[in-house]
Amino acid sequence: MKFQYLLLLFGLTLVACEQEEYAFGDLTAPSNLQIEANVAGQTADTPDGDGSGMVTFVATADDAITYKFIFSDGTEEVAPSGRLTKRFTQVGVNTYLVTVVASGTAGIATTGSTEVTVESTFSDAEALALLTGDGTKTWYWAADEPGHLGVGQNDGDATANYFANYYQAAPFEKVGNTCMYEDELVFSRQGENLYYELNNFGATFFNVDFLGVAGGSGGEDACLPYEVQEDAQLVALSPSESVVAANGIPGQTRGTLLNFTEGGFMSYYVGNSTYEILSLTENRLVVRVVMGGNNALAWYHIFTSEKPVQGGGGGGTEEPEFNNLVWADEFDGNVLADTSWSYDTGTGNNGWGNNESQFYTDRPENVRVADGLLTITAQRENFSGSDFTSGRIVTQDKFEFTYGRIDIRAKLPSGGGTWPALWMLGANFDTVGWPACGEIDMMEHVGNEPERVLSALHFPGNSGGNAVTSSTTVETAETEFHVYTTIWTENTIRFLVDDEVYHTFDNNAGIPFNHDFFLIFNVAVGGTLGGAIDPAFSSSSMEVDYVRVYQ
């Protein structure tokens, strides 16, 4: 009777439309609905697939305009073409009911169902536990952290595609937007399922490209009134296949995706519902999301389980305040302080392991302290079988430390082949060797690329040419002093130039950056990174105004 009533209404409408000379055509329900399910990796030996949980569905029907897929795991998607690929994430072999609604003209629909059995072997039980705590956990923006909101490139450049290299928000930078820092992101667990609820208190911070979603307009990001899903939304975990995961570098990503259903998003609206977990601890969550409609950009969010208070010292404990000066050398005297520094001399093993061309000496021609500066000079001369001399000083066995902020104000040498470095080596180097001891390169520079400054981390599996590196442009590196800073904690290692972060690395207990290190300052010539030596090169110096360590 209801269907007849609807047809009668449509008939009346058509009569009226004919008087206005409009026509809808025949109202025909889709027919001959067929549903095909292709399980990835399905063979006679693996009838439930390859464990990826991937299934491609193809729905066809006569007179259908679009298709809606409704799954018994609580998700649904619209596919106008009738073709849809879905990853089922419940671990193990599971059977799902799939309902397809084929819609025709004027919304007349035909419904059909099928079942699919598929295996999913992906699991991240630890992430589930960390996100939800005892069952429910609330997360907040880590507004007191540099880079809690940032954006970077999303491409195959493994040196820069895993951190916010375009922009990083300063602590509490967005406080004037009123709404973003108020958001509460609530994760809860029901059995093995993860659920999410965003409490936005009636307003959401929108990226400028998506202001129209909330009926807004303008030329910059804005907080706009916006209603979000009231009920908790299912979140599916799956393995990441991002460009960061493809880098294959430990410490860059956890490799787990958060797939939010029903258009869910993590506070800042950028038009995507899939977020990659880069790192996760009990108190800190770092995610990456590719911008909707612009695959060239990826946004980075940092959250904490303890809401920060501006000026109150609250929030996560992952970024300590290093304000206590524990060691420094201002180079105010006229000799290098032997209570703090020693010299490395000679050519080392195979040019200090890098085919370098210099002979390190302890002569004042190569290392001197005067006029408030440490000066390390590389120069061309025949000395003990080498064509160049230079200096290298270390604090090994004299000053060694774990965690802190290291500020070094320096001006770098010039000339093709020069390779100055301000770096640290694990204090257990003599017992475990390299790279097991760990190496933190706070600043490296090569004269053949005069405006580029690098940072790097070397550890087992990522050393030498496979180190975790990043770089930034410093146009006056050779002509002016700049402050090179490293902020080293148990959770992150950040590299800055003049207080601007350009490289962030997620530290963890499984890599060798959680014990004492010592400082090394040197200027190499040639070698694997220094490259070709300019035939006209005669001498050049690195000048250091000070080095200060805070904890």
TrEMBL record:
Keywords: Hydrolase
Superkingdom of the source species: Bacteria
A Pfam family matched in the record: Glyco_hydro_16
Presence of keyword Cytoplasm: no
KW DNA damage (keyword) present: no
Molecular functions per Gene Ontology: hydrolase activity, hydrolyzing O-glycosyl compounds
All residue ranges annotated as the GH16 domain in the record: 320-551
Family note: Belongs to the glycosyl hydrolase 16 family.
GO biological process, one term: carbohydrate metabolic process
Protein name as annotated: Glycosyl hydrolase family 16
Organism annotation: Neolewinella xylanilytica
PROSITE patterns in the record: GH16_2 (PS51762), PROKAR_LIPOPROTEIN (PS51257)
